[in-house]
Structure formats: structure tokens, C-alpha cells
Amino acid sequence: MLYPKYDPDTYISRDLYRKVCETGDLRVVWAYSNAQKWKVDYEEFLALCGSTCLICSGELNYGLGKNNNDKSSESTPSTHHIVPQSKGGKNSIENFAIICMRCNEILTNSTHKEIHRYVAIADFLQKHEEIYEQEIYQKD
Ligand SMILES: [Zn+2]
Asked: Residue 103 Cα, ligand 1 centroid: separation in angstroms?
């Protein structure tokens, strides 16, 4: 969504406002504020910002400013540290992946053991796919 007037809370700078107006690309504002937050190069960070989550392939919504509060976590982009900060992971382009907030929450709260659990769950679901589709998913 584009806001028709320049507002520093939404667009940060007139330059970014102009860029969004010219290109319709909402990523520029999100990328700029996050590049500042992580103290990395803006252009390099922008290049990481794809249109979909690298994990679940869900569409990412780079909506502006206050608009972000209303977005579901599935479409909200977030910066994932491949090596977590708590394990000494750096704020660097090489250590970042832009994924949705939901996948980031799951990843961040996962331990090494959980990887095996997820694989096993996926196997189980696949093995019983028919039952899940007929009996379980439709009753949600
Ligand atoms: Zn995702």
C-alpha cells in the first residue's frame, strides 16, 4: 500500500519516498531500515529481499511502516541469522536469510534434535497423507 504523502515515520527519507513512488517497490524502505539496524550495506541487503520466504515459499509483504502491525506473521518478512547471534553469529550479509516471521519463529526456537523430529513428522504426514486430507485437514 502506498501512502500518498511523505511521512518520515513511514518512508524514513524523501529519497526512499521518491524511490517507492517511482518503482512501486516496497522492499526499499524495509531493506533500508533493516540494513541500518544490522549495520550492513543497503544495496547488498536489498538484494537478499526476495518476494517469497526461502523456507515455505509464502509471499512476503514488505508493506510500509505502521501497516506492518496488521500483517500476519506468515507474510511478514524477517531477517534470520543462519548462525544465531546467541552462538556468535555475526550481523553480516553472508549470515542473513530473509524468511517469513512464522518460519523464523519455528527456526529460532528449534534445537538440533528438532531437525530430526521435523523430518520424521513430514515422513509421517506423507505416509498418512490420505487420512490427513480426508479426515483431519477438512475438519479444521
Ligand atoms: Zn516461511
From this structure: 4
Q: Distance between CA atoms of 48 and 31, rounded to whole angstroms?
A: 9
Distant-in-sequence, close-in-space partners of 17: CB < 8 Å, separation ≥ 6: 6, 11
Please give the average pLDDT of every successive group of 10 residues along the chain, which has 140 residues.
76 90 91 95 97 94 64 85 90 96 88 87 93 79
pTM confidence score: 0.80
For residue 140, how far is its CA from the centre of ligand 1 (angstroms)?
21
- Output the CA 4–ligand 1 centroid distance in Å: 30
Ligand 1 center from residue 125 Cα (angstroms): 19
The Cα–Cα gap between 107 and 114 comes to 9
* C-alpha cell at position 112: 538440533
* C-alpha 7 to ligand 1 mean position (Å): 30
At which residue does the C-alpha cell 549470515 appear? Answer: 95
